[in-house]
Amino acid sequence: MNKKYRNTRTINLRRKKREKRKKRKKICATIIAMILIVSLGMISKQIYVKNHSCKVLVNNEQTVEEIEQATENLKGKTIRLKGSDIYNKYIEMSKSLKSKNIVLVNENNMLEKLLAMPLASYKNASVLVIDNDNIPDDVKNEVSRINPEEVYIVGNDTSISKTVESQIDSNKKIKRICGKDICQLSKNIAKEMSGYNTVFVASEQDKDKNTLIASVASKLKAPILFSTKEDVKNNRFITKVEKENRYILNEGLFSKEKFNDESLIDIKDFNNSSIKINNKFFTKSNSIIILDSKEQEDILASSMLKRPIVFYKDNITEDEKGYLKNSDFRNIYFESKIPNEFLEKALNIKNNLEPGELKFNKPKAAFFFSHQDDVILFAHSAIMNAVKELGPENVKVVLINRGNGSFVYKRIKSGKLSPKIPSTMTLEEFAKARTNEFDRELDSYGIPDENRTYLDIPDSSTKEHIDELRTDIREFISDGQDYQFFTFSYFKEPQSDHSALGRVFRELYDNQEIDNVYFVNKPKAYEALDKDVKFSTNIKTDEDMQTVRNAMNSYAVYEPENGLYGIGIISVRDMFETLEYNLQNGGYIYGTIPGQKDSN
């Protein structure tokens, strides 16, 4: 088949397919809207729960366990934690659980909230924080959603007044656990958790640092006991546990008679102690939680998830890298206020993306680029090496834009550009000629026709087609094939189509829909990157060098009978001259952009 005709036919089919898909979406949206209108009344009757004169919709979000089961055979999932105020921080965590009971605790008492965490785990309960004498409406709604069998109140009347009890449904079993001081309260909570085989001993003077142990204590259903050095010696809630399962958080409470040497958990260096705790108690975990170490409420609330916590900081330490590599996590719970760069650092470690010479660690490679000459100018050695290492049948190329937006077309129409190119050329013929050059380049690499896709999005309008582009990429990866992706970076990228494309892939990577993507930078942006995130790839043989020269020549060939006018080299002659000068450098590549700000 004539290549010129094939390109026209492919693009036209693509346009028709996109129009049909848009039409189907409109029809589906109308049908769904009608179904929702008809069924809302029926659904509300069935899934609303009445309790204490409140009505709340039963929450259908996935629980922690459901998320982990659903992602067991997938790459994973990124779950962004939210909660606008202290009450909703705990409510959002509660919605991730299948709790049967409730533990209520005063919002301002850090020590009582800490003690409440393992108690709630033991009682299959959610921890909800309230005022001293009132249950806020949002908390009431969550209580009604859970419809608990039992409600536990932690603290005496000073922490939570008796008026709160009157705001709880009288049909519920209510139990208050209190004590004359925090040490006695911790013992009374331990008494409520009969049968425990691990215990953590702490000092109330370390209340901010003690939060480190909340998630572990919840996981192990192990009470936290506040004690003094004298009390430690005769505390039966400690001595009932085997010596090797007694852990102490304050060196001043340590007694060789009561604890093993390895029982001391050092919490002096708060930021780094979390990894030591994770290495000891969370050697393997399907999920991790990324938090800011300064946000004590986030640490306590997320402890209900019973997962290891990693603290956000500018640089990940070697100990943290080692833990993340070995923990085999899939899912990430991520505090929304933390910069995405740290999320990427964790994902890069998980996905074994290390700087240096580019390695092809997937069976297939896919190159997504905006315009016809982008691959030759910025990723020629990457695609050349992909073809050599994986085979041309395992390399796919997706051209995003139509190629109809080049400023060169106006110069052609004026007749001032080149006497060889007819000024009568239509815009459609111009775009088609550019695609002919692109196809000739791909022929040079040996990439088969069936591995080429044309999305045909008009130039300079990619950002208006983000949803459509996202759908196209998801359709591309839905066949179950394992791809290594290459695309444009948005970091310091002035060209709107390039940056929009990069942002879509960044979003898919952050959400773990893809686990291996390399972003191609232009030289100035590449120079601004930290060396720890730079990847490079070079042409390796004289034969490959000649192949790339042939590919480059595709944009200089003048064969009007084949729809080739040398438009590429006329459009960006300076870039092709730079390419000739720098042919050993096949594009500027990095994995993701930790260390760089999202606003760049």
From TrEMBL:
Lineage top rank: taxon: Bacteria
Gene Ontology cellular-component terms listed: outer membrane-bounded periplasmic space
PANTHER family recorded: AMIDASE ENHANCER, N-ACETYLMURAMOYL-L-ALANINE AMIDASE-RELATED
Protein name from the UniProt record: Cell wall-binding repeat-containing protein
Organism: Clostridium senegalense
Origin organism lineage: Bacteria, Bacillati, Bacillota, Clostridia, Eubacteriales
